[in-house]
Design goal:
The structure holds two protein chains of two kinds.
Chain A (H helix, E strand, L loop, with lengths): L6 H8 L6 H26 L22 H29 L4
Helix pairs in contact in A: 2-3
Chain B lengths: L11 H9 L4 H6 L3 H6 L5 H25 L21 H46 L7
Helix pairs in contact in B: 4-5
The chains are: A mainly alpha, B mainly alpha.
Amino acid sequence: MNSSQPPRQEQLKTTLLKLNARAWGIALGLLLGLGLALATIVLVFRGGASVGPHLSLLALFLPGYSVSVAGAFIGFAYLFVIGYAIGRLIGSVYNKLARSD
Amino acid sequence: MTRRPGARRLPREEDDRAMTEPTDPIELSERLPRSATLLFAPLDKRAFGVAIGVAVGLVIFGVTAIDLAFPSPWEGLGLLNQYFAGYSVSWPGAFIGLAWGFAVGFCAGWFVAFVRNLVLAISLFVLQTRAELGETRDFLDHI
């Protein structure tokens, strides 16, 4: 560390960001959940002979999910929980490994 | 150190901070408040890379494991081997996917943190330069 730098500049360079694991969880959960819900709703409103044949494959991993309005809510709930867990994991692992200032 | 009767006891964290932070008024005025330093605080690239890598690796492993739990696994997941050499919907494939996911996630996370830190450093430099220019703009008036 260069001690000749003014304290303010030194402070800005040495302070490392810590992540708020809960906020990361909620943010990632909402992002994934709303993403799937929106994709499902768009396909439902577009309609057609076969509605969302590819997206409906998600039902293999998310039991109860389907390309329908009810399925959009179920998918949102599933992906919110999964996204929350992933976001929380990212926040916790980062905070454990980040150098403390 | 004696305390005034009835004075509020500092929590341990505040005690520590009081011991490490400067008490000299000149040095205090030079220091930025914690909230201001956090505005431009950089991310630890290595730690962020590892965090994203662990998350991506576990997602690939978990999805493969769930698929394997079914009596007739969905082979569509095996298409991942177009990108992840050696991956397949099998238990060894799940571990290969975990390793690939960690590697790819680490690179992506490290790069995201690097770009974020770079953009923040550039914006901090621009702000500092503008502030310094603003301070010295009228220096001729003071001569």
